[in-house]
């Protein structure tokens, strides 16, 4: 699929909108008119980038958005009783593109007139000038067609003159702006329609309530970890495979019977398409054209059917292996087939996992080859960079990317999974950073890796062969190639557009029945039978081939199989043969049936059930698991652990995140296996759940950008806290005594329009105070917000504007508490924004440029002022008034700016011994433990030490003279505070630089902790975090004196 032109995209979006409006107009209008202002605003924000929409038609906070689509604003669109939005929707959905070009709704300007006005009056320009290029708008066929004059230009222009005079031919730079306006309006309206229908849907959704983490932790402590009691036997492997087969078949049943499950699966497929990965130029294929939704339905069903077929075949092969005891030739053939099919399932699940990672948390680490496609017709995506770079900065992403690499074998995958599991045990918050679809696909990958590991312990597994045992592998490739050709031909838009429409009565069933009929017509039989027949054909030939091998005296080697005999047939003959066979099949005879059965089979009598009395929370967990309603909820892993613990199950760890739950003796020998971090895969139960938040709809990134509309620009979030950089004085010459934090973040951004040339910026007004008013509660809140921002794969970096008086303390706190390799830049100013030659605007531009630069990755938090880049770990304010105040005399600068561009003196590195403190779950209201700084001087008043302790100080930092020296009386008071109150004491220094290697030693005991290279104010921050983390004195000493 090549990169479509704007001309093609606008036509596709218009067709989508017209179809939706024709089908749902009455319902859309009814729902919208029933909405109040809050509901309308919610709809409008849902489809916008990060929920940001123009406040009014002249709002400049989003750059050029107000020049391109000024009508898309909250004031005009959401006013109760207003028909503005419905009039706009009706006009765009029912009028031709040419009519929209000429006139707007209710006599307003058309697209051509509005863009021309913005060019004349508001300096709107396109990035490229397209010399000698013209765009025609003369009807739908020619709408947006562009031509370049290469010869006889004067004659050509003369021929174009009538069209130019009539406004039907414009310079391409203008034409691209017109198309851009139409694309953004049509795409926004498409999304709005879906959000209106979604909010107005009568289908309720239920969500599983989460227990408190503390309760889950206590319950888990009741589970006992056991080593395997006996060596696994082949019967155990057969039972495991059967369990996984049953899980897939159960999921197929859910997919066909519960519309919400199908809707969720389609949503996941649609928004994980490889086409959405940026190519080498940062371009993505269209996000929201409906032509891909039908293929997503096809794909959701195909993935489920193929997975079920794989495990059915594995089960049958294991049964054959059990029956072939003593028959070495037959066993050799079967074992080779098992080895190959297990490898095929590993490759399949790895590819699905990679697909979700490359469109999720690992998006920045993949690129799509423009005009490059794999054998299935999907866009080819490759990894860029070396995951090894993430070893220290983002261990989870490192392990995840390793699992995506094609060279990672199942054996190596088990090692990476174990490391990932260990990481989650040490840092539980890391697990929450993975998207649900990444976790789900990781679950399937874990299952096959665990299965291969167990299987290898029972039988001697041969290496994968490309020549031997290729029956099912070759057959699967044939079936998949045939189905992939059909995927782009199916049209299910009447049922599945928007995707949420699938949950409406009859829509999911209609889509599946239409899909069945289409595949029967094109392939001769249903999708399920294609795989059913493949399984049976492979098994039949497996029975025959070893006998042939015996007659040829080839008892010790598996034969090389030919591909299916149907391969040599013409497609028409093959389809006709299948159609004839279809007539003789009993109804609903496939295990992979996707349409509801007309007459449900009579269930077998159930064995007597055992009743358990459990708590309400445990009852809720199992009620959710086995609920067959349309709106099944989801169950978290801690909740499931708690429920199983209450039933007195013990858990046997296998590796990584794979566990087997063993019931108490009173329940018999049934086993449950949890091969997942967050999702349940439980045999014979409703285990593959789909009750989850739908994948968010990405909006058009162009609406967040600068004048050139380059959607590949990085996204930067600016957190404004106040300070001098936002200060205002009474005159332009006043640089002291001004009011800090007087100006909002929007004013700061608007004052530096050049920012929009390097990034798409979002401003967050976190606070607006002088930095002397910053406190630990605000620091915790700021750190948590920044962590959320940098965890967003679409955010490239963060800038924090801050007052300079305590800037170094905030920067140091963020250095120790935010876990990311993305650039975080803290910036301030020494002159208020109202001063002559204010330094804030240039500092802000340089900091945003740095945050947007790949060169800034992996360097920790940085401080930017006066054209210099410093490490937050060591940089300090050295002068109360000078612009050139932030320095690190001993350690030096990391880099500088040359014409606003960052230049680094060294490759990426972080400070030696820098610790990390996880405060994601801290309540900001609790702040940090009180730690006071006491200043050393001649004739020190030692009574200050117990006074600080009595006032609530849990720790003290002593700014001693020289290398941390303290008076004798002072040391005595310190020792008393340590003995009697267990006060943590750090010895630091008054001088600008140097280090304190250790605290005073008396009788062989070190009384206190040496502050290392940290100055008192930074030592205070580190001590607060260490006390909060409940570090021992030895642990504290290791992080301070190591410095």
TrEMBL record:
Catalyzed reaction equations: L-asparagine + H2O = L-aspartate + NH4(+)
Active-site residues, as the UniProt record annotates them: 724 (o-isoaspartyl threonine intermediate), 724, 804
A Pfam family this chain is assigned to: Asparaginase_C
InterPro entries hit by this protein: AsnASE_II, Asp/glu_Ase-like_sf, Asparaginase/glutaminase-like, Asparaginase/glutaminase_AS1, Asparaginase/glutaminase_AS2, Asparaginase_C, L-asparaginase_C, L-asparaginase_N
Example GO biological process: L-asparagine catabolic process
Region of interest: Disordered: 547-614
Family annotation (CDD domains): L-asparaginase_II (cd08964)
UniProt entry keywords in alphabetical sequence: Hydrolase
UniProt EC number: 3.5.1.1
Domain Asparaginase/glutaminase C-terminal positions: 930-1040
Compositionally skewed regions (Polar residues) per UniProt: 554-571
Record-annotated L-asparaginase N-terminal domain positions: 715-899
One function term, GO molecular function aspect: asparaginase activity
EC category name: hydrolase
Coiled-coil region: none
Residue ranges, compositional bias (Basic and acidic residues): 573-585
Family: Belongs to the asparaginase 1 family.
Protein name stated in the entry: asparaginase
């Amino acid at each position: 699929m090549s990169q479509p032109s704007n001309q093609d995209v606008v036509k596709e979006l218009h067709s989508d909108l017209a179809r939706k409006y024709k089908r749902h107009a009455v319902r859309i209008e009814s729902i919208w008119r029933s909405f109040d202002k809050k509901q309308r605003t919610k709809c409008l924000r849902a489809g916008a980038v990060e929920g940001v929409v123009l406040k009014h038609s002249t709002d400049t906070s989003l750059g050029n958005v107000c020049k391109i689509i000024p009508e898309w604003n909250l004031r005009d669109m959401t006013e109760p009783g207003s028909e503005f939005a419905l009039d706009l929707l009706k006009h765009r959905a029912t009028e031709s593109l040419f009519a929209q070009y000429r006139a707007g709704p209710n006599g307003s300007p058309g697209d051509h007139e509005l863009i021309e006005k913005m060019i004349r009056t508001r300096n709107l320009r396109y990035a490229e000038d397209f010399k000698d290029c013209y765009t025609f708008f003369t009807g739908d066929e020619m709408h947006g067609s562009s031509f370049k004059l290469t010869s006889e230009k004067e004659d050509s222009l003369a021929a174009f003159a009538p069209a130019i005079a009539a406004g039907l031919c414009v310079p391409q730079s203008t034409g691209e702006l017109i198309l851009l306006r139409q694309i953004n309006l049509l795409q926004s309206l498409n999304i709005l329609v879906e959000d209106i229908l979604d909010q107005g849907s009568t289908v309720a959704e239920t969500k599983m309530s989460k227990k408190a983490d503390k309760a889950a932790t206590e319950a888990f402590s009741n589970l006992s970890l056991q080593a395997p009691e006996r060596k696994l036997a082949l019967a155990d492997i057969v039972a495991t495979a059967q369990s996984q087969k049953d899980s897939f078949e159960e999921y197929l049943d859910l997919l066909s019977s519960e519309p919400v499950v199908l809707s969720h699966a389609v949503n996941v497929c649609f928004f994980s398409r490889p086409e959405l990965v940026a190519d080498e130029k940062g371009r993505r294929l269209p996000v929201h054209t409906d032509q891909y939704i039908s293929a997503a339905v096809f794909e959701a069903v195909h993935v489920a059917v193929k997975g079920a077929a794989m495990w059915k075949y594995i089960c049958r092969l294991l049964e054959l292996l059990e029956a072939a005891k003593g028959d070495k030739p037959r066993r050799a053939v079967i074992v080779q087939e098992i080895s190959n099919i297990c490898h095929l399932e590993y490759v399949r699940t790895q590819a699905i996992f990679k697909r979700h990672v490359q469109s999720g948390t690992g998006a920045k680490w993949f690129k799509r080859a423009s005009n490059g496609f794999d054998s299935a017709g999907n866009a080819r995506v490759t990894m860029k960079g070396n995951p090894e770079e993430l070893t220290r900065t983002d261990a989870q992403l490192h392990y995840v990317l390793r699992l995506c690499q094609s060279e990672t074998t199942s054996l190596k995958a088990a090692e990476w999974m174990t490391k990932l599991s260990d990481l989650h045990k040490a840092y539980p918050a890391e697990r929450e950073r993975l998207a649900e679809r990444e976790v789900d696909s990781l679950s399937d990958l874990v299952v096959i890796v665990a299965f291969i590991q167990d299987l290898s312990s029972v039988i001697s597994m041969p290496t994968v062969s490309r020549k031997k045992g290729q029956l099912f592998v070759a057959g699967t490739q044939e079936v998949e190639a045939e189905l992939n050709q059909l995927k782009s031909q199916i049209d299910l838009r009447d049922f599945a557009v928007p995707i949420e429409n699938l949950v409406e009565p009859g829509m999911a069933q209609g889509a599946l029945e239409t899909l069945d009929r289409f595949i029967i017509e094109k392939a001769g039989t249903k999708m399920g039978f294609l795989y059913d027949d493949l399984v049976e054909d492979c098994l039949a030939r497996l029975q025959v081939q070893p006998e042939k091998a015996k007659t040829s005296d080839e008892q010790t080697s598996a034969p090389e199989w030919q591909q299916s005999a149907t391969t040599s047939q013409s497609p028409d003959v093959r389809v006709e043969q299948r159609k004839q066979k279809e007539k003789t099949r009993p109804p609903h005879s496939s295990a992979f049936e996707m349409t509801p059965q007309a007459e449900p089979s009579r269930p077998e009598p159930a064995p007597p059930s055992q009743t358990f009395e459990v708590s309400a929370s445990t009852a809720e967990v199992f009620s959710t698991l086995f609920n067959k309603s349309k709106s099944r909820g989801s169950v978290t892993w801690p909740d499931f652990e708690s429920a199983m613990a209450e039933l007195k199950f013990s858990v046997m760890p296998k590796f990584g995140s794979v566990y087997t739950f063993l019931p108490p003796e009173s329940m018999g020998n049934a086993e449950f296996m949890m091969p997942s971090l967050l999702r349940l895969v439980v045999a014979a139960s409703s285990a593959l759940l789909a009750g989850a938040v739908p994948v968010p709809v990405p909006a058009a990134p162009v609406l967040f950008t600068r004048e050139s509309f380059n959607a590949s620009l990085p996204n930067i979030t600016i957190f404004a806290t106040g300070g001098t950089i936002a200060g205002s004085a009474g005159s332009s010459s006043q640089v002291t005594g001004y009011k800090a934090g007087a100006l909002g973040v929007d004013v700061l951004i608007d004052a530096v329009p050049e920012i929009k040339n390097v990034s798409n910026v979002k401003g967050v007004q976190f606070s607006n105070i002088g930095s002397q008013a910053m406190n630990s509660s605000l620091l915790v809140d700021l750190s948590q917000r920044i962590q959320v921002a940098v965890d967003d794969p679409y955010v490239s970096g963060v800038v924090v504007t801050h007052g300079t008086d305590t800037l170094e303390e905030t920067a140091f706190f963020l250095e120790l508490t935010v876990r990311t390799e993305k650039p975080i830049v803290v910036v301030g100013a020494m002159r208020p924004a109202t001063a002559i030659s204010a330094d804030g605007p240039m500092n802000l531009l340089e900091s945003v440029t740095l945050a947007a630069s790949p060169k800034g990755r992996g360097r920790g938090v940085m401080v930017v002022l006066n054209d210099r880049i410093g490490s937050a770990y060591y940089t300090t304010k050295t002068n109360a008034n000078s612009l050139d105040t932030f320095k690190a005399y001993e350690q030096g600068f990391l880099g500088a700016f040359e014409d606003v561009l960052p230049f680094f003196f060294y490759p990426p590195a972080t400070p030696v011994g820098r610790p990390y403190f996880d405060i994601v779950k801290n309540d900001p209201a609790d702040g940090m433990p009180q730690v006071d700084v006491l200043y050393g001087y001649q004739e020190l008043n030692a009574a200050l030490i117990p006074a600080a302790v009595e006032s609530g100080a849990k720790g003290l930092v002593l700014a001693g003279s020289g290398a941390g020296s303290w008076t004798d009386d002072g040391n005595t008071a310190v020792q008393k505070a340590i003995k009697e109150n267990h006060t943590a004491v750090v010895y630091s220094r008054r001088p600008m630089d140097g280090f304190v290697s250790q605290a005073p030693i008396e009788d062989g005991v070190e009384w206190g902790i040496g502050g290392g290279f940290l100055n008192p104010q930074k030592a205070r921050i580190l001590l607060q975090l260490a006390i909060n983390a409940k570090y021992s004195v030895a642990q504290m000493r290791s992080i301070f004196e190591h410095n």
